[in-house]
Amino acid sequence: MTERETWATRAGFILAAVGSAVGLGNIWQFPFKTAQFGGASFLIVYIVAALGIGLPAILAEFVIGRKANLNTISAFEKLGYKEWRVVGAIGLFTGFWILSYYSVVGGWVLRYIGGSLTGAYFAAPAEYFGQVSAGMEALALHAVFMALVVGIVAAGIEDGIEKATKLMVPSIVVILAALAVFAFTLPGASAGYAYFLSPDFNALSENFAEIVPFAVGQAFFSLSLGMGAMITYASYIDGDQSLFGDGITIVFLNSFVGILAGFVVLPLLFAQGIDPNTSGAGAVFISVAGAFGDIPGGQIIGFVFFAVVLIAALSSAISLLEVVVSWAIDNYDVSRPQMAIGLGGTIFLLGVPSAIDSAWLGWFDTLAYQLLLPLSVLGILVFAAWVYGAPAIDELMKGSGLGEGVGLTWLWLARTLVIVAVVATLALGLQTLFLGESPAIVPPL
Ligand code: PFF
Fold it and tell me: Measuring CA to CA, how many Å separate 79 from each of 50, 239, 382, 385?
């Protein structure tokens, strides 16, 4: 067997993890929900959730991955807990499942890149979305998106994922910043900032019971937790860098990109007098797309906007294909490109129903978001904090230069508050699943 790959640099690992984290969740969910749930006052809740709950959870995944230097299933066995492989298997399955429909959405984005240049969706954005979001064309573009993902993953950790994300993540930030400056120049944009960030403590207190689970769920999804991605990426770390420092950097950059996206989409919508009171696919593919039809240079701006959405979606999707590819090449004597093609092809097939009919996509998403993700995060936390325990603190503190108190704080946060939050999220998810409320990232189409 050939030697296991590693990241060439610490920055390479951080950028790859940020690439995984920054995805559709940051662009089509975060800004809209922030505005709806109380602006700046919601941001405070979100940041507390991201640091108090998301950070301990991402550190748990990093610890397992780096300590074991193996894929998300075998890692548990290597650490001496063979039975806990089932937790890794749930995470791997969750990633597999999510990528199947995320890739369909990636295909829509490809369609909109082309549609921007020709102005195809300008006149009737809602009808256009209805036409291209399901059917043969959506299926073909799902295949193209998946082929791009396979191409990057097949090239390897250092030559594929690290090189790609080193280019992609800075591009996302620079392009979004440029779009934010452009949006700022539009007449009427200022109402967008007011809508996005003005603190509304009433909205916060009235909807608190809905807001807290959303903030926690968003922190998990947005940080790509419970999908095996962060365990897998951390397994390629070669060295004793501070996992704590890396985790904080990733949480910060992920939130920053969400806020930056808000500075693009909300001023744009307000400048065109479009009601932003929706989130999810409709917000980006109908409302924001509709705005491009009315602004000068909308073809180019639309093209650039959807290009950045594509980059964000791709840099997330590769992390999920890597979860399964990593498992396969750690365990079987097959080449990375062969596995990337074989597993990418299988995930493509699983996504066929979602590409043909959006109702399937909504169902896949609901199951992932309400059940699979919280279940997987819960398993990882119980393992890292309660079962593995003391060695986990040692691994976390390695190279950090921080005192023992930080490790103990992490352990007890993870053992108590974080687990309670995940159990509550899971309970709510099950309730939603059985009472049949609307799905989480994709609204009723
Ligand atoms: N953190 C990602 C996002 O916010 O979009 C979550 C994710 C979804 C990662 C789907 C990877 C993926 F394929």
Answer: 28, 18, 15, 14
Highest mean pLDDT among 66-75, 215-224, 262-271, 427-436: 66-75
Task: Report if pTM > 0.90.
Answer: yes
How many CB atoms within 10 Å of residue 408?
12
Whole-angstrom Cα distance, residue 234 to residue 401? 19
Q: Are 271 and 291 in contact (CB under 8 A)?
A: yes
Following DSSP, what letter does each residue of 366-403 receive, concatenated? Answer: HHIIIIIHHHHHHHHHIIIIIII-HHHHHHHHTTT---
Q: How far apart are CA 105 and CA 110, in angstroms?
A: 9
Tell me if 319 CB under 6 Å of ligand 1: yes
Please work out whether the CB of residue 315 comes within 6 Å of at least one atom of ligand 1: no
Atom number, ligand 1, closest to the C-alpha of residue 317: 13
Rounded Cα distance between 288 and 24, Å, is: 14
pLDDT of 445 higher than 60? no
Please report, for the chain, the start and end positions of each structural domain, with discontinuous segments joined by +.
10-435
- Mean pLDDT confidence for 382-394: 96
Task: Measure the CA–CA gap between 123 and 141, rounded to whole angstroms.
Answer: 22
Residue nearest to ligand 1 atom 13, measured at CA: 317
What's the DSSP call for residue 3? P
With a CB cutoff of 8 Å and minimum separation 6, the contacts of 181 are none
**Residue 209 — left, alpha, or beta (φ > 0 → left; ψ -120 to 50 → alpha)?**
alpha
Class of domain 10-435: mainly alpha
Centre of ligand 1 from the C-alpha of residue 185, in Å: 31
Q: Which atom of ligand 1 is nearest to the CA of 103?
A: 13
Establish whether residue 224 lines the binding site of ligand 1, counting it when its CB lies within 6 angstroms of any ligand atom: yes
